[in-house]
Amino acid sequence: MTERLSNTANQYIGAAKQTIGQTLGYPDMAADGARQKSEAETAQKVADAKAQAERLQHTAENSANSAVGGAKQAVGQTLGLSGLAAEGAAQKSSADTQQKVEDARAQVHGAEHELEGKIKQKVGDLTNDQSMKVDGATTEAQGTLQRNV
């Protein structure tokens, strides 16, 4: 979350520098602002991709643990091995609970994206930055999609 806030702040600061530089006729300031904004956007895309990869990995691990736990439970019940059945039930329950936590994190992450997108659109309006407005709309839509999946 701290990285997201830092990247977002740098995007806004960069956009402001770019706008001020363009408005007041300071091309170096405008270029520096554009660079800062672009670097922050790229850093956030990289951070988002890493987070998505981690979520997918956790989901795969949870699914595998749930399936293995369910299989242990079924085999234990079928063969009358109560210890194996209990171990399987516990493994399955733990994996299912961990997946619910991952799903909740995805909901929060989606809500963050929605809010971030709305803020970017407003900042884009204030600075007359079309690319930030478009990025904001895209970010908001991404958040909505994450919350609905």
Automatic annotation (TrEMBL):
Cross-referenced InterPro entries: YjbJ_sf
Biased composition, class Polar residues, residue ranges: 139-149
Presence of the UniProt keyword Transferase in the record: no
Protein name per Swiss-Prot or TrEMBL: CsbD-like domain-containing protein
Coiled coil, from the record: 94-121
Annotated source species: Linnemannia elongata AG-77
Keywords, comma-separated and alphabetical: Coiled coil
Highest taxon in the source lineage: Eukaryota
